[in-house]
Amino acid sequence: MKLVGLMGGIGAGKSSVSTRLEKRGAVIIDADIIARRVVQTDGPAYDPLIAKFGRSVLQGDGTLNRAALASIVFNDAAALADLNAITHPAIRAEIGVEIEALIASDVIVILDAALLFETPRAEMVAKMVVDIDPETAVTRLVAHRGFTEADAWARIRSQQTRSERLADADYVLDNSGSPDQLDDEVETAWLWILSLPNSP
Length: 200
Hints:
Largest sheet: 5 strands, parallel
CATH topology: Rossmann fold
């Protein structure tokens, strides 16, 4: 196995890059999907979340109302820290299970995780960053994902800064251009990934 980390701020286009890498044969471990799984009604983070934030963050059927929770935590640093303290250990544990299942295989695994660099994995041989300027990210979030401009900026400010991500990257993938330009960026990145050593 060769484990490569992939991160970028919200709106940077990690999913677009992951999709292109998957088409080239990579196995994707998506921390966002795992994050949704751990807060399902039978997930390990569900009961602690309700205990902390109350039933106002639930929908009528008892499932988590992600928008209601987001409106609390992305405007309150202490509430975001509480959310992270509940969900991150569960997410890390699930990621560990998925990596363990692949570690003896001969595959390239891409770990797509927004908080990758704060909690790196020992098996990771390199870290890639999908990079765009924050103004472009906000424009895309408003145009394509239904965010208000204020909400988009709140999400961006809650994450690691662009300069922090870039300083810790082994490889930077520019997603400021067209989809065709992104195809070229990913192809170059894929060749770089193929040159990397296997995970320890």
